[in-house]
Amino acid sequence: MKAVQYQQVGAAPVVVEVPKPEPGPGQVLLKVTAAGMCHSDIGVMSWPADKLPFELPLTLGHEGVGTVAELGSGVRGVAEGDSVAVYGPWGCGVCWKCAQGKENYCTRAAELGIRPPGLGSPGAMAEYLLVNDVRHLVPVDGLDPVQAAPLTDAGLTPYHAIKRSLPKLVGGSTAVVIGAGGLGHLAVQILRATTGARVIALDVADDKLALAREVGAHDVARSDENAAQSVRELTGGLGADVVLDFVGIAPTVQIAAQSVAVEGDITIVGIAGAPLPVGFGLLPHEVSVASPYWGSRAELIEVFDLARQGALRAHVETFGLDETPEVYERFHHGQIKGRAVIVP
Ligand code: NAD
Ligand code: ZN
Ligand code: ZN
């Protein structure tokens, strides 16, 4: 079968022929129907060899949807032909966090060498995807696979990030979304669907700001040295109750620090890793800062329900497997609006 692999540190991904996997006991083989392209892939492909926590080659793609093609022995709960999405942050299934459905925070995954598909295990940018356990599957139930794929990460991650701040996002509150890309344009919609907040989106690209407005942002502004001032002006000087940073570089965490209100939340989702000084006098009083990772399986089901209600719609551009290396290149240069989805 064809697969898109990252084979060599620093080199571009390539389309290669690899053996079609066979499901062992308890495993499920999916015929992939859609695979989303996340900026984290570009992050991973920029890491030096000594930071890479897994071996290469790696088949990319951690936002996967497919049709059940073959069941390993002992698998129950899905049948051949079912359309299912893959919950990506696989855990051990046994620890306390996993028991709560928070496999994203499994306490033993690293020790046991369990890694998400596309981020250590073979991913969804291939004709077939092997899933280790039926519990990682969520029925798509009427959603278009091309829509469902981005929701498994670009939808789920902002949903989880926003959920921690829901008590602060009452009527009259303000939320700022920094970076209106794959995750950010869905964050705007989730905020509109689940909160009473006024939503301000910031980005460096005009087409991304236009998309943010199209999908429901009340205000948009360029993410530059005046951005925090714009947020202050739009909020009568008070600042934003919640700032979600989908970039995480020095200028954006600084905007977050300068635009958050007293008792507000800063949530850094982007993985660039710029430090944010926290301490008395460094941020407005009682600001809480978090850097969440992905979301829970139950939250993925909630995200799908929101999409079925029509509250969430990913803006997608679709491509074939063979085009993937070139699409990564375009994505790297900011030339994808919303999410790129590969349809093998
Ligand atoms: P994307 O490329 O689709 O979107 C990023 C957006 O940020 C683009 O619209 C870009 O124009 C904008 N941007 C760039 N520089 C900016 C700046 N200085 N100010 C404002 N906007 C700016 O990327 P994505 O796939 O949406 O991913 C966003 C980030 O989230 C990445 O860092 C990714 O690795 C990370 N991520 C984290 C998690 C997690 O669990 N924490 C999960 C998925 C993705
Ligand atoms: Zn991702
Ligand atoms: Zn666990």
From TrEMBL:
Q: Which domain of life is it from?
A: Bacteria
Q: Which UniProt keywords apply?
A: Metal-binding, Oxidoreductase, Zinc
Q: Which reaction does it catalyse?
A: a primary alcohol + NAD(+) = an aldehyde + NADH + H(+); a secondary alcohol + NAD(+) = a ketone + NADH + H(+)
Cofactor names from the entry are: Zn(2+)
The terms under GO molecular function for this entry are: alcohol dehydrogenase (NAD+) activity; zinc ion binding
Q: EC annotation? A: 1.1.1.1
The record's annotation in CDD domains points to:
arabinose_DH_like
- InterPro entries assigned: ADH-like_C (IPR013149), ADH-like_N (IPR013154), ADH_Zn_CS (IPR002328), ER (IPR020843), GroES-like_sf (IPR011032), NAD(P)-bd_dom_sf (IPR036291)
Glycoprotein in keyword set: no
Q: Which SMART domains match?
A: PKS_ER
**Domain Enoyl reductase (ER): from-to ranges:** 10-342
Give the family from UniProt. Belongs to the zinc-containing alcohol dehydrogenase family.
What protein does this entry describe? alcohol dehydrogenase
Originating species:
Saccharopolyspora elongata
